[in-house]
Amino acid sequence: MLERLGFCDLWIRWIKCCLEFASASVLVNGSPTREFTPRKGLRQGDPLAPFLFLIVAEGLAGVTSMAEEKKLIDSLEVGRSKVKVSML
Q1: How far, in Å, CA of 48 to CA of 50, rounded?
Q2: Smaller CB count within 10 Å for the chain: N or C?
């Protein structure tokens, strides 16, 4: 998705490194445990989470628009202006 949005290879590698090579520890009764490497996904409070959410949402909006153009799904018309909404 990053590539389709025009991000250069360097940015894509940076994002991958942030997701693949992070480590974490857990506080148990106020004391940190040994660090471990999460296998998948984002960690709670990860500053990349909002950024990556927007990128995924942009991809979903694109796929939804294409499906609507091909008449695979219908949008709803909302309000007096009849604004078309195809995803919430």
Answers
A1: 6
A2: C
9-45: pLDDT as tens digits:
999 999 888 877 778 888 999 999 999 887 777 777 7
Task: Name the residue ranges covered by the structural domains of the chain.
Answer: 9-81
User: Which residue reads 């004391």 in tokens?
Assistant: 31
Tokens 């078309």 -> residue? 84
Q: Which two tokens stand for residue 84?
A: 């078309």
Q: What is the DSSP-derived secondary structure letter of residue 53? A: H
Whether pTM > 0.85 for this model: the answer is: no
Instruction: Report whether 68 contacts 75 (CB < 8 A).
Output: yes
The pLDDT tens digits for 64-76 are: 889 989 989 888 8
Strand-pair partners of 31: 28
Identify the bridge partners of residue 85 per DSSP, sorted by sequence position. 76
